Amino acid sequence: MNSKIFSNEKFCKAPVVGIIRGMSEKATLLKVVETYISVGFYTLEITMNTDGVLDLIEALRTEFPELNVGAGTVCTIEDYTNAVNCGAQFIVTPIVNEDVIKQAVSSKTPIFPGAFTPTEIYKAWSLGADAVKVFPATQLGPGYIKDILAPLNNIKLIPTGGVTLENIKTFFQAGAIGVGMGGNLLNKRYILNHDFERIKSDLIKIKNEIDEFIEL
């Protein structure tokens, strides 16, 4: 297994966490990720409620050493342990689970806990989160991110849920350090049809939209 170190440099080159949920066909996933990397995206999470997730994480770590491979929908210590044991380089949760956050921090595994209210966001950050996933961001939009960062300006936020080509720039303008994207980044219909050219075209559009926020 190659190094387990998460590359912040790679993340900053394309500050988007791609989210894979329910894609269990390994050959298709590998082709999707090949396309993903070809456009210059380097950070991807596979949710723990995807069939065969542990094997898929191992496969991505082996096939794409340049990729930041994470586990998403990590809700318990058991999820956390299984994820890191198979090579996950970072952890994403949909909730604030103190035990999971503390374990990740003590093990120096980057973690992006999911939180929504100012209290949840501050609590997750104070426990040692590397950034806080604001979820679901679609409910209140970029204005909410700006409002949160007014008093809590030191917290790094990654809004997730409802981020699209049309609004992604506004989340960065509001102060987000990155975003999480699933179907709006990797279209499920295109994946089912193995239409990798259209997937690539969508990825290029997203990359171009946030070009001014990318650190080279």
Q: Radius of gyration, rounded?
A: 16 Å
Globally, the shape reads globular
* Main sheet overview: 6 strands, parallel
**Discrete helix count:** 10
Helix content: 40-55%
Uncertain ranges: none
Assess the beta-strand content as a share of residues.
5-15%
| Class from helix and strand fractions | alpha/beta
Cα distance spanning the termini? 28 Å
Calculate the mean pLDDT score and round it. 95
Assembly of the depicted chains: single chain
Compact overview of the structure:
This protein is of the alpha/beta class. The protein is 43% helix and 14% strand.
Descriptive report:
This protein is an alpha/beta fold and 216 residues long. Helix content is 43%, strand content 14%. The chain has ten helices and nine strands. It has helices at 8-13, 26-39, 53-63, 77-85, 98-106, 118-126, 141-149, 168-173, 188-192, 196-209, and strands at 16-20, 43-47, 68-72, 90-92, 111-112, 114-115, 132-134, 157-159, 179-181. The chain has a six-stranded parallel beta sheet with strand order 5-4-3-2-1-9. A three-stranded parallel beta sheet has the order 6-7-8. Helix 3 (53-63) links the parallel strand 2 and strand 3. The chain starts with 7 loop residues before the first helix and ends in a 7-residue tail after the last helix. The mean pLDDT is 95.
